[in-house]
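sorry for the late reply, my laptop died twice this morning and i had to redo everyting from scratch. anyway the thing you sent over, i finally got around to it. pasting the sequence first so we're on the same page, its 482 residues, then the predicted structure underneath. double check i copied it right bc i was rushing
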Amino acid sequence: MTALRYKVLTGTFWSMFGQVAYVGVMLITNIIMSRILSPYEFGQVGIVMFFIVIANVLTESGLSGALVRKSDASETDFSTVFIFNLVVSVALCLLLILFAGTIAAFYKDPSLKRILMVLSTVLVINAFQMVQNAKLVKELSFKRKSVFNFVAIALASVIGIIAAWKGAGVWAMVLIQILSSLFLTILLWYYEGPVRKWIFSRASFKDLYAYGVNTTLASILNTAFDNIYQIIIGKYFSIMQVGLYYQAKKLQDVPGNVLNLTIQGALFSSLSQLQNDKEQFSRAYNKIILLFTVLMGLITSVTFLFSKEIIVFLFGAKWSDSTYFIQMLTLGSFFFLQETMNRNIFKVFNRTRTILHLELVKKAILCVSLVIGVFYRDLHIMLVGFVITSAISYLINFYYSRKILGSVSAYELIVVAKIIVIAAFNTLAWGLLFNYINLKGPLLLLLTPVFAVTYFVLLRVFRVSDIVKEGKQVLTIYKTKK
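ok and here's the structure:
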């Protein structure tokens, strides 16, 4: 095995392991916090986080990805990105502080002003860690990156839980956000070192930004619309409904984020190594996407079928109204994963402008369902529109990404369609069985392994996929010598 293949293999493993550990801590923290705090307090954080995540995308501006992709990135490049991130983060922090009162008045909740003002400091803290994170990803040092992330979130979570237990309320969640960013920054600067140069190069910025500008605009659109439901629900429905939606979204994001962040981290770095060989890239990409699609099909069907039992078991009966939210969100996430996979093709082959164009189309379609949902004050319309938009966006992304690789084949779409049909059939069959024998409650979760086995058996019987075989093939991609 070559040194590069070994680093890719171990990098992928540690990226997956790190994400599982990180998400695990977040899930445990969320479970404990949901038992202490109310849906209304979660709703307050959900509204404020919309503005924070948008500002964070603007701060990063796609430059981290540009640094990772650039094979000969210099210290001047890293310094330029750091200075840009710092200046923009300070400006956005001040801007949020300035308009915090206006935002609070819009939602008729004065306490949102202080929450937003305090949380906006996260932007400045994050600016001091972006360059170090980019270096770790570029060097495929995912073990170190995973350890840093885990330690930071673990320490912050413990402190936040204690604060919530002592009656801090919504400020306990604010504390977790700030401390996790602060601890991670301290760890990165201590172990990876500070920025070695303080030079801003216009030539370097122009070169990097040419790559990052399109991904940034696309990320802004994607992030804004990914969180826009919190803003709309809070204004036209209630902040408590925002809390129910926000909780469902966080829970649904647990398995999806592990796969998604792995794709954006280790997988993007790995595939970038193959950008000069489209045939080898296509071969590796097709094997990887099949494995991820099969896994996401299982995750989606399990979450949909056992949604109420999962929510009540983890968070308590007061969160049971989140059931419909998580069911619709998990359906949409299945297609979003496919779309995320396709974006790697655009990024690796430097077609980032196409990402922006496709995002504009997707958001235009999504706006229709949002407008209709608001007009009729119907959350069901809004969420069904989200699922339909995700499916349409996947199909569009599929077509244009395969054109880059040189061919558009219906075979992959047929495979994805078969996975969807098998997952839906398996879910429906088990659901009917549960209703027939009147089986319900948290004990249903004990049947999850049996449900998974029937899913994989059906895939094998209908010759769609053999999970063991596909897993070995993906590992072979990394082990094979150039």
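Residues 86 and 127 are 5 Å apart (CA to CA).
thats about all i looked at so far, will dig more tmrw
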